[in-house]
Each structure stands twice: as C-alpha cells, then as structure tokens.
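Ticket #4471: structure output looks truncated?

Reporter: J.K.
Steps to reproduce: submitted the chain below (285 residues) through the standard prediction queue, then opened the result file.
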Amino acid sequence: MSKDLLKLVQSAEMRKSKSDKLIASYIERNIAELPFETAKSIAARLEISQMTVGRYLRRLGFDGLDELKAALRRGSRSNPAWQIKGSLDRFQEDLRDGKFLAGLLQQQVENLGLIYELTTAPQWQQTIDALISASEVYVAAYQNVRGIAQYFAAQLSYTRSRVAFMDGLNGTYAELLDGAVEGRVLFLHDVRRFAAKARPLAEEARRAGVKVILLTDEFCPWAKEVSDISLVIPGSHGPLWDGAATMTAVMDLLLANIIVVLSGKVGERVELLTRLQDVFGDFES
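Returned output as attached by the reporter:
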C-alpha cells in the first residue's frame, strides 16, 4: 500500500497546483508517520486549510485521512506505537543545543492546554459522576499503557471502595461480565497501537449492561462505537515515540476532581487504609 501511495502522489496528476505539491511532498517525506497525523495537523504544518487537504485526499481516492490511515494499516505488517520514528542522527545537534528537549516539552505544554478543554466538556463530568456512583469500577489496559492504568486504579482505590485492575489472565473477564452486580463501570485505557482485546472487551461489557468509559487518543477510529463515554486526548506527533505524559496528566486531574467532590469521604477512607498499612507494616515509620 505504501509503495502504491507513493507512486500516486509522485504522478503529475497529483502535483498540478502549489498546494498539491506541498501535500504530495509531505506525504512522500512522512509516509511512515501518516498514521499519527490528522488532517488538521497536516494543514497546520503546511499552512493550508483542512479543506484543501480533504480535497486532495479525495482525489487520491480516500474519503478523509481516517480512510487513508486504515488502508495503510491494512497494508503494513506492523505499526508499533513505541517505535523510533526516523533517524536519530538529525537530533544529535539539537540535543546538544537544548532545542530537542525544549521542543518535546513545548509539545507537552500544548497537549496540556488541549486537556484543559477536555475538562470543560460534558463527558468529563459524566466520567466523574460514573466513577463516583458505580457499584464497582474495573480498570483495564494493555501493553505499554498497562502500568499507568494500574497506577490509576491503585490511586482511585484510595478515594472509594470496590476498585480493581483486570489483567485478563483468567481468559474470561468474568469478574466484570458475570452480571452478578448491577451498576458496574469499566474504565478502559487504550491508545495506538490498539490492543486486540480492547474493543471486544468494551463490546462485551456493554452487552452485559456495564457502562464503558474509554480513555484513548485521537487515532482511535472506534471510540464512540464501543463506549458510553469517551475521553479523547491528543495523540503523539513527536519525532521519537509515544510518551505517557498526557495520559498520566488526565488521570491525575480525574483523581483530583474526584477527591474534591467526595471530600470528607476520601479522608475517612485514607485514614482506614493508612491504619491497615500500619498494621501490616507496608511502610517505614
């Protein structure tokens, strides 16, 4: 698929206008990173309109960038999220000058600004209400996101009872899907490269009457299809690999919001857990 696409954008037919040449050249240079782009990000980089990018993609035969990315995924044997994108040699000088890390930090600052917009959206309050009112909360995640999702589950357990991280090792997820308790919530964390089990788990949960909250990134094509509430964060467009700073920031903001809403109840639970930690000697005095 990549070779066919390159052949097409290199043709005279797809390089008629100035904007054609800009987009075609961008695709040529960055074809490996197209799965991590949006029409908006491409337009911003080239200083053209999203509409211009959309028209060009339709001339290529794709109804938008999502369709192109899906075709690239089908034609590629692998698309690791934690991959090194491009040659490291070109970053060496910027690293010595401090520009490289400064650029990455600036991207994280920009992403945090976008997260603020998410905290003012209706789905943010819906998530807070669901995590507080649920009879039981089950957190699930896979691959590289698994560790920070376990962190979230552990922290959330300090604010309320009946919180568990599911590792799926029993092969059934029966603790969530057996229908024994009403009012359960599944908080599923998944970003590209998307785990094979994530979507089926969300679909089964909804069939079982479990409310599904999905924390994902802008590259997820099925977020709204399988979730009751979707929190969509900016995806990584950095030169190296995907970091977890943005997702971790969202988790910490969720926890802070829940703590404030629950107020004294959290204090009582923390006192209980602290006493139990002292009883079992988990921490130094």
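Triage note (M.O.): checked the attachment and the full token line is present. The domain at 2-78 is CATH 1.10.10.10 (Arc Repressor Mutant, subunit A).
Status: closed, working as intended.
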